[in-house]
Amino acid sequence: xxxxxxxxxxxxxxxxxxxxxxxxxxxxxxxxxxxxxxxxxxxxxxxxxxxxxxxxxxxxxxxxxxxxxxxxxxxxxxxxxxxxxxxxxxxxxxxxxxxxxxxxxxxxxxxxxxxxxxxxxxxxxxxxxxxxxxxxxxxxxxxxxxxxxxxxxxxxxxxxxxxxxxxxxxxxxxxxxxxxxxxxxxxxxxxxxxxxxxxxxxxxxxxxxxxxxxxxxxxxxxxxxxxxxxxxxxxxxxxxxxxxxxxxxxxxxxxxxxxxxxxxxxxxxxxxxxxxxx
Length: 278
Prior knowledge:
The chain is α+β, with helices and mostly antiparallel strands. The chain folds into two domains: 37-181, no CATH class; 189-272, Sandwich (Immunoglobulin-like), CATH 2.60.40.1180. The protein has helices at residues 21-36, 56-63, 74-92, 102-106, 159-162, 169-182, and strands at residues 11-14, 17-20, 45-46, 52-53, 189-192, 201-207, 214-220, 226-231, 238-242, 247-252, 257-262, 267-272. The strands form four sheets. A six-stranded antiparallel β-sheet has the order 5-6-7-12-9-10.
């Protein structure tokens, strides 16, 4: 919306080219429609004039090149969950509010369009991502909700089943949110988004409240392992600890350098254990 109005005539650099905001908007929209819906992902639908009607899981399947949802394998589900947790970390490991939906919790996919065709006659395609779900196994065999909404295919299972498995989406989400709360990341202050070399890498640096030090969120949105030396000026040196998995990842030098290794679609929440007063 802002590229259409407020920033329509501002200049932006994107993928090696320069665009005014209004043209960039159209370019990104067309690219999004091509890759996340249509022939490549027919289970996701264009939404009116802006956006794609989808679930988080079905956006991930589209990004992975899965065209037919009925062909999803157990290995696919593990990868979808892994990427979904990366998106969770992007949202949870920075200041501000964190939220996600019941559809996220169960890994819901979109409904076949013909199941909700009668609800989309006004052009609102969002009904494909509004399927029913049962978080706590109240009626595991039900195919429709009490409001007569069809139940879509889900990838992760109910919360009841997930919380019995430490490697499930919900159990890992619970661990991430416990760390977010323990370090009060919601109330932190973002102080740096450093320039990086790899196009799939995003790094965010936060000042934690109450003198808890510096927190770094590093996210690899690419399908390849990356190794990169970060330059973090003005941050007191010290050991760098993975605060989710509770292990040392390396050291931030006095020159403000830290080398990070991330597997494909991996995210790390780090804390600099400074040896100097903050």
